[in-house]
Every structure is written in C-alpha cells, then in structure tokens.
C-alpha cells in the first residue's frame, strides 16, 4: 500500500475517476494585500500616536505585530500547497499526497477489492477511508463533511461501474 518510485507519477489514461483535492483558502492574494495594508495602517497610526506621546517603544511593537500577521498568512498560504489526487483505472486505485514542502507519498489499491467506509461522528464530522485487506487509508480529509459525502458517492459510483463493466477483449 505504500509508495514506490513508479507510483509517484500520475496514472496513464484512460482514467475512470480523477479527483484533485486541495485545502480551501477563501482569501485571495488581493484580499491578503488589502488585509495586510489595513493592519499596517492601523498599527502605524497607533504607533505614531504613542510615539508622539513619548512612548516611542510602542512603535516598534506595532511593527512587530504587522510582521507576525504577515508571517502567519505566509505559513497559511504555504500549507495550502498541499493536495491529494485520487485516480482510478481498470487495474489500480491510486491516492497521491503532496505535502506543503512538495514531498510525495502514494498509496495503491486493487479496485476490485477496495471498499469505502464513510464514518459519521456524533459531532456531524465525517471520515472517509479506503479499506482493503485489513488496511485503511483516510482520504479527502481536506473536504467539508458534505463535500466528503459527495466525493464518496462519486468514487463509489466509479468503482461500481468498473466492477460491473464487461471485461475488454484480450
């Protein structure tokens, strides 16, 4: 189930199912520029007021606050580079995960044996697992519970279509 070097490349067409799952980030780069501009303007104004009243060290702390907000957003955008792909062909179901640093891990399943397990928690969260031969892999963790249920239905439909389709002539 763990990656080998040949599993790191995407599967060759024809694909019966292909999904790219990325974490949601609602703030665009333009929105980030506006937010950081507002934070900087407010902190600069507050820092100037304190500096004029003789509390000049506060100005440095206001600048530090702007820097920390910028660093927090930068870390958030870096984490958004992570993604997961789920690809299905006639002979393989492959899950590829790329973390924020670009490290790739791949997991392969035989599509005729894999089953989906969608677990609903009491707090309305869900967890989707691929289960095969006693091993489990959680997928689509970046999706909302509703999106995860839709994803599970689509993947299950693709697996069902694959399993019921007539075998190609040899």
Residue windows where pLDDT falls under 50 for at least 5 positions: none
- What shape does the CA trace take? elongated
Which structural class is indicated by helix and strand composition?
alpha+beta
Helix content: 25-40%
Largest sheet descriptor: 4 strands, antiparallel
**What order do the SSEs take from the amino end to the carboxyl end, as H and E?**
EHHEEEEEEH
Terminal CA distance: 28 Å
From the alpha carbons, calculate the radius of gyration and give it in angstroms. Answer: 24 Å
What is the averaged pLDDT score? 88
Your description of this structure?
There is one protein chain. 14% of the residues are buried. The protein is elongated. Helix 1 packs antiparallel against helix 2. The protein has helices at residues 29-52, 57-79, 145-164; strands spanning 17-21, 83-88, 93-98, 104-109, 115-120, 126-132, 135-139. Strand 5 (115-120) and strand 6 (126-132) form a beta hairpin. The longest helix has 24 residues, at 29-52. The strands form two sheets. The protein has a four-stranded antiparallel beta sheet with strand order 1-2-3-4, covered by helices on one side. Strands 5-6-7 form a three-stranded antiparallel beta sheet, with helices on one face. 39% of the residues lie in helices and 24% in strands. The chain has 170 residues and is of the alpha+beta class. The model has no long low-confidence stretch (mean pLDDT 88). The chain has three helices and seven strands.
């Amino acid at each position: 189930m763990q990656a080998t070097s040949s599993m790191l490349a995407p599967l060759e067409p024809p694909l019966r199912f292909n999904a790219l799952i990325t974490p949601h980030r609602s703030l665009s780069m333009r929105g980030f520029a506006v937010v950081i501009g507002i934070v900087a303007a407010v902190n600069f104004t507050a820092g100037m007021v304190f500096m004029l009243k003789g509390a000049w060290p506060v100005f440095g702390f206001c600048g530090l606050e702007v820097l920390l907000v910028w660093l927090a957003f930068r870390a958030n955008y870096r984490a958004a580079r992570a993604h997961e792909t789920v690809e299905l062909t006639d002979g393989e179901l492959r899950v590829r995960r790329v973390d924020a640093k670009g490290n790739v891990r791949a997991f392969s399943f035989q599509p005729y044996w894999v089953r989906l397990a969608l677990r609903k928690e009491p707090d309305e969260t869900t967890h989707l697992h691929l289960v095969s031969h006693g091993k489990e892999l959680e997928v689509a963790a970046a999706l909302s519970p509703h999106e995860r249920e839709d994803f599970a239905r689509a993947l299950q439909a693709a697996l069902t279509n694959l399993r019921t389709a007539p075998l190609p002539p040899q």
